[in-house]
Specification:
By secondary structure, the protein is of the alpha/beta class. It folds into two domains: 154 residues, Rossmann fold; 89 residues, Orthogonal Bundle (ProC C-terminal domain-like fold), CATH 1.10.3730.10. The chain is built from eleven helices and eight strands. The protein has an eight-stranded mixed beta sheet, sandwiched between helices. Helix 3 links the parallel strand 4 and strand 5. Helix 6 packs across helix 11 and helix 7 packs across helix 8. The longest helix is centred in the last third of the chain and has 23 residues. The radius of gyration is 21 Å and the shape is elongated. It starts with a strand and ends in a 5-residue tail after the last helix.
Length: 271
């Protein structure tokens, strides 16, 4: 399978590593297109084909993965439109709807939209996907690509991609924020930074693994470690007094709303 990446940032790097690791592609089957000399040199060192511009006459791609910033997507897509053949287009760009991409491709609709997250960098990501393609096998192609960097779900409507963006796309930052807060609390109460950092990180890692493996709801696991009148109950009561759950839900809603706004900011008149 020949794959072109338009944009060579962190997520493109993760997907390249996943495709190579699971044997879906070999280096000569991949092309990374990026205007940055530094980015191209990084992939050159991996024996990956690179270019500053893309032409099908030079590289006949089965899949084109759009991996640029939202504000750069229209120019990137329009650069492909003039010589587009029958490639599957996979967009991992936040906020920009398929309708905009199809319009910029002059009606070509073999398009799948994907929202991955940064743990894909260590093949531990999770992605939400939505497809308008009617070509048989396109979903399976997308699953092979995204399966190389973690797990995935299919969304029943494109609007849910904005929710995926808010929950898991931005989710790692929320986790890092909470880890930061745990570390800061430990240090304020007397722990050295290294010790507090270790405790916070291992608590998150262990708790996440337990939740994933147990098959039980997080609420059940939480109740199981909360003794009446104990230390955990005291902390959770403080969270509840501060309406922490409501604030988290409001924050996720704000992220979802911003994802939808990106379509208006960069998606063009058809949005």
């Amino acid at each position: 399978m020949k794959v072109v990446f338009i944009g060579g940032g962190n997520m493109a790097s993760a997907l390249v590593s996943g495709l190579l690791a699971n044997g879906t592609a070999i280096p000569e089957d991949l092309l990374v297109v990026d205007i940055s000399d530094e980015v191209r040199h990084k992939f050159d060192a991996m024996k990956i084909n690179t270019a500053s511009t893309f032409s099908f006459s030079d590289f006949n791609a089965d899949v084109i993965i759009l991996a640029v910033k939202p504000q750069h997507l229209r120019k990137a897509v329009e650069s492909c439109a003039s010589n587009l053949k029958d490639s599957l287009i996979v967009s991992i760009v936040a906020g920009i709807p398929i309708a905009s991409i199809v319009d910029w491709l002059n009606g070509y609709d073999r398009v799948i939209r994907v929202m991955p997250n940064t743990p894909a960098l260590i093949q531990a990501g999770v992605s939400g996907m939505y497809s308008v393609s009617t070509v048989g096998g396109d979903k399976e192609l997308a699953e092979v690509i995204m399966g190389g960097v973690g797990r995935y779900i299919w969304c029943q409507s494109e609007e849910l991609i904005d929710v995926v963006t808010a929950v898991s796309g931005s989710g790692p930052a929320y986790v890092f924020y909470f880890i930061e807060s745990l570390v800061a609390a430990g240090m304020e109460l007397g722990l050295e930074r290294e010790a507090s950092n270790l405790l916070a990180l291992e608590t998150f890692l262990g708790s996440s693994r337990l939740a994933a493996r147990s098959g039980e709801l997080p609420s059940v696991l939480r109740e199981r470690v909360t003794s009446k009148g104990g230390t955990t109950a005291a902390a959770l009561a403080s969270f509840d007094a501060d309406n922490l759950r409501e604030k988290i839900i409001n924050a996720i809603s704000a992220a979802r709303d911003r994802s939808a706004e990106l379509a208006k900011d960069f998606g063009g008149d058809e949005v």
